[in-house]
Amino acid sequence: MFVDEVKIYARAGRGGRGCVAFRREKFRPKGGPDGGDGGDGGSVILRADHDLNNLVAQYYQPRLIAEDGEHGMGKGMKGRSGRDLIVRVPCGTLIWRLTPPAPGPEPDREERHIPLSTSVRPMLPYAGRLPGGGAGGSQSVPLPRGTGPARGILVADLTEHGQEFVLCRGGRGGLGNKHFATPSRQAPRFAQPGEPGEEGEFLLELRMIADVGLVGYPNAGKSTLLTAISRARPKIAPYPFTTLHPQIGIVEYPDGHRVVVCDIPGLIEGAHRNAGLGHAFLRHIERCKVLVLLLDMAGTDGRQPWDDYHHLLEELELYDPALLERPRLVVANKMDEAAAESNLRRFKRRVPRTPVLSISAALGEGVERFKKAIREAVEAQVGGCSPR
Fold it and tell me: What kind of fold does domain 212-380 have according to CATH?
C-alpha cells in the first residue's frame, strides 16, 4: 500500500502540576514548604528517514499523542518529564498546518436541529524551524502552485536524512509551593498547574526526492525503462495505468556513481486540473533535477508522438511554469516497432531543434546511451539552483 498524503492530529504532553507539601521531620515539625515541580510534557517530533518511502505508518496511526509530565512530589522531588514522541517520516515530506474553517452565520434557532458547540479550541503556536530559516510558527509560507490544502500553512519541509521538526511542543511543568515562599508568606498552600501541550491538525504530503523524473502518457514504457536501467521491478503489463503510484529506481554505474530515477504514473490531458489524479502524480517531479519526456514513437495507442509531446509540455506548464525551465531529455521509446522509424522522421520535422534519444526499453537497445545521458544532465546541475 502506497500513501503519499495523510491528515493527522498531534498533541504534545501536558506539564505536570506542582506539589503543595511541607517538610515534616522529627526535630523540624515546621520545616517549611518543599513541594517539587511538575515534569515537562513530551513533544511530538517528526524525523526524516531515508529508509522510508511512503506515509503508510501515519495512515494507520493518524493520532500522535505524546506523554504527559508527572506531577511534583514532596521532599522537593520533581516529577518525571514525559517522553518525546519521535515519528519517522520519509525524506521529502512537507508539513501543512491546517487552519480551522471560518465560522459561518449562526442558523435561526427555530431551524436548528442539533445543538451548536459554544466552545472552540484555539490553534496554538507551533515550534520549530521554517524552510527559510525563520523560527516559530507565526510566519506563513505561500502555497506552491496547484498543491497543498486550500486552508493550510506550510510550516516545514524535511528533505535530509535525520532532519527533525518539532510539530507540537510539550507544556512546561508547574512550580511547587517552595518557589512561592517569602518572608511575609512562609507557608504558601498553592502551586502552579502544568501548561497544556500544543495541538493541532496537520497534513503530511510526500514529494519524492529524485534526480530524474520519467514523464509520459500511459503505456509509454516508463516502467519497462525503469526495469532496464535499475533493479526496481514495478508491475509491467500491456495496458494503460499499470503503474498506480510512483516508483523509485537506483541507476548504478561501474565507478560507483548513482542516479535516482522516479517513474510517475502516466499523465492524461487535464492533469493540471487534477484529472486522473494529476496533482497526486505531478507533485512527485517537482524536486527532480532533470525531466525525461518518454514518447511512444510507435503510436501503439492511436496517438501521434508529436501530439503527446506538445500535450505533455502544456500540462507541465499549466501545473507549474517553473517545470519547463528544468533540463529535459526527449526519449523515443519502442523503436523496435514497425512504424517507429517513420514516426521519428515526422516528429523531427514537426518539432525541429529538439534532440531525440532513440531507445527500445523492452529489448535493451540504447539503454546505455540513455544512462550516460541522464548522468551528464544531472551532473550539469550540480552547483546550480536546485528545484524547490
Answer: Rossmann fold (3.40.50)
Angle subtended at Cα 9 by Cα 6 and Cα 13, rounded to the nearest 5 degrees: 140
> What residue has cell string 500511459?
218
Nearest to 129 by CA among 61, 62, 57, 48: 48
**C-alpha grid cell for residue 87?**
515519528
Using one digit for the tens of pLDDT, what is the confidence trace for 217-251? 888 888 889 889 888 776 565 555 555 667 888 89
Number of Cβ within 10 Å of residue 381's Cβ equals: 15
In this prediction, residue 266 has a pLDDT band, given cuts at 50, 70 and 90, of low
CA dihedral 253, 254, 255, 260 (to 10 degrees): 10
Element (H, E) at 313: helix 305-319
State the pTM of this model.
Answer: 0.72
Q: Under CATH, to which class is 1-103+117-206 assigned?
A: mainly beta
76-90, 241-255, 304-318: least confident range = 241-255
Evaluate if residue 350 carries a pLDDT over 70: yes
Question: In the beta sheet, which residues pair with residue 64?
Answer: 10
Which residue has better confidence, 2 or 109? Answer: 2
Asked whether residue 155 carries a pLDDT value surpassing 70, the answer given is yes
Angle formed at CA 255 by CA 330 and CA 364, multiple of 5 degrees:
40
Mean pLDDT of 360-377: 91
User: So where are the chain's domains?
Assistant: 1-103+117-206, 212-380
CA angle 385, 280, 282 (to 5 degrees): 40
pLDDT at 380: 87
* Whole-angstrom distance, CA of residue 104 vs CA of residue 227: 53
E strands, 185-338, are: 199-206, 212-216, 247-252, 258-263, 290-296, 328-333
Helix or strand (DSSP H, E) at 375: helix 367-380
In a 3-state reduction of DSSP, which class is residue 58? helix
β 5-11/93-98 pair status: unpaired
* 367 CB-contact burial (10 Å; exposed 0-12 / middle 13-18 / buried 19+): middle
3-class SS string, 62-106: CEEECCCCCCCCCCCCCCCCCCCEEEEEECCEEEEEECCCCCCCC
388: confidence class by pLDDT, cuts 50, 70, 90: very low
- Torsion angles phi and psi, residue 257, rounded to 5: -70, 150
Paired with 360 in beta bridges are 365
Average pLDDT of the residues of the chain: 80
